[in-house]
Design goal:
The protein is mainly alpha-helical. 52% of the residues lie in helices and 10% in strands. The protein has five helices and three strands; from the N terminus they run H-H-H-E-H-E-E-H. A three-stranded antiparallel beta sheet has the order 1-3-2, with helices on one face. Helix 3 runs antiparallel to helix 5 and helix 4 packs across helix 5.
């Protein structure tokens, strides 16, 4: 089955897109859409290095909701910053250490950072342990790093089934252990 439909989700998306573009579910449109849905994935399958392996689809839906809300909210914040006095902006480029692993999860994180107005992902380190981010305005660099890690990286770790290194830590020792 994998040889006939190397990317079944892509095939369905192509078929539906074809039908929407043609605004028709006539037999001819269905046949042509099915042909496109079968042929394009077969011709492009060798270019697909990364397969999406979402371990928690419900977490993905929640993540998409958080990102959508953050994009809307950040648009208003950035508009206020840009329309306000320019001396109030404190832009910075900073290094964000990563616990997330894998090319697809890192690509999703980088895209999320860039999609959210006010931040742009600049570069992922060659060893994929950190990402450089440009923030249009930040007063507290550590708070910005913590927010990205909590709102996006930790959620993506749940989406892709990766262990959260911060979740398994125990309470810090006070040094008074008997």
């Amino acid at each position: 089955m994998k040889r006939i439909l190397p990317q079944p989700v892509l095939s369905v998306v192509l078929l539906v897109t074809w039908l929407l573009i043609n605004n028709s579910i006539a037999p001819g449109s269905l046949i042509m859409g099915a042909i496109v849905g079968l042929v394009v994935p077969l011709l492009t399958c060798r270019f697909w290095e990364i397969e999406a392996r979402v371990s928690n689809p419900l977490a993905l839906v929640g993540y998409a909701g958080v990102v959508l809300i953050d994009i809307i909210r950040a648009n208003f914040v950035v508009a206020r910053q840009v329309l306000g006095p320019s001396r109030a902006l404190h832009s910075q480029i900073f290094e964000l250490p990563l616990d997330l692993r894998g090319r697809l999860p890192l690509s999703v994180l980088a895209a999320t950072i860039t999609l959210t107005p006010g931040t742009v992902s600049c570069r992922v380190s060659p060893d994929q342990t950190c990402i450089w981010v440009h923030a249009l305005h930040t007063d507290d660099l550590q708070a910005e790093i913590d927010e990205i890690k909590q709102r996006y990286e930790r959620r993506l770790m749940r989406v892709f089934g990766q262990a959260d290194p911060g979740a398994s830590t125990t309470a810090p020792s006070t040094g008074n252990d008997a």
